Amino acid sequence: xxxxxxxxxxxxxxxxxxxxxxxxxxxxxxxxxxxxxxxxxxxxxxxxxxxxxxxxxxxxxxxxxxxxxxxxxxxxxxxxxxxxxxxxxxxxxxxxxxxxxxxxx
Length: 105
Prior knowledge:
There is one protein chain. By secondary structure, the chain is mostly helical. The protein has a domain at 46-86. Helix content is 69%, strand content 0%. The chain has 3 helices and no strands. Helix 2 crosses helix 3. The protein starts with a helix and ends in a 23-residue tail after the last helix. The model has no long low-confidence stretch (mean pLDDT 82).
């Protein structure tokens, strides 16, 4: 038969084993656990892709805006068509104002 000391050792070891398993389960499934951390990593990666896409779009828009400010007619026509200012079956006209002539009386 087992002595009282051996029974206590077995009980303590069993209790420690159960505690280790419980902490492992809590660490994996609990709030802030491994699954939540993995979901946050996936969301972060998705946001980084979104940020990179938007930054590339900003660079493209700045380039187009600079071309329009420099008077590039093709860039102006492309912007007008892309953003719905001119339809596909319409023509874009550039009106250049002429200063009015002053009449001498």
